[in-house]
Design brief:
Layout lengths: L16 H7 E4 L3 E5 L9 E5 L11 H21 L5 E6 L14 E6 L9 H13 L8 H10 L8
Antiparallel strand pairs: 1-2, 2-3, 3-5, 4-5
The protein binds zinc ion (ZN).
Length: 160
């Protein structure tokens, strides 16, 4: 499951153990849950398969089921922690013309509530997703959030 797959865009952050160490706050057999390096809102999370694939169709059925189950497990906790009022965006950009920033399949979970800055500007959230990543903008330090979430999810990085 090491990601020795070449990526024309250069270094693949989701196959880089250094990034996983920094961002992961939960994992299952096939899936990592990462805090986004460039969050648009507090709690902005990424769900990625451990194996390098670039679309949903390339997942095996157990990987796909695990990915969806992980989203279903993580999201309610995330919404509670970040006081998201039963609301969140799930965002996936798949394929070269989708506006994706990384080829490695990733699904964003973005907790939302009625006080957040995108309340009346939902389209801007999608613009910012791309802008923050391209310009490497982080609106807050991710380390304290990762620490907090690791405690909630009782997660310790094992040897890898
Ligand atoms: Zn990858």
């Amino acid at each position: 499951m090491s990601g020795k797959v070449s990526n024309k865009r250069g270094k693949d952050p989701f196959c880089d153990p250094g990034n996983i160490m920094k961002q992961a706050y939960y994992e299952t057999k096939y899936t990592y849950v990462l805090y986004n390096l460039y969050p648009v809102i507090k709690g902005h999370t990424l769900i990625i398969p451990k194996r390098h694939v670039s679309d949903l169709e390339s997942l095996t059925r157990p990987e796909a089921v695990d990915m969806i189950d992980t989203i279903r497990y993580v999201t309610p906790k995330l919404l509670k922690i970040y006081k998201a009022d039963s609301s969140y965006n799930l965002v996936a950009q798949i394929g070269p013309y989708s506006g994706r920033s990384q080829e490695h399949l990733h699904i964003h979970i973005i907790p939302r509530n009625k006080y957040d800055m995108y309340r009346d500007y939902n389209d801007r959230l999608y613009e910012d997703l791309r802008k923050y990543e391209l310009k490497r903008i982080a609106i807050h330090k991710i380390e304290p959030e990762v620490e907090k979430l690791r405690k909630v999810f009782k997660y310790k990085l094992g040897p890898r």
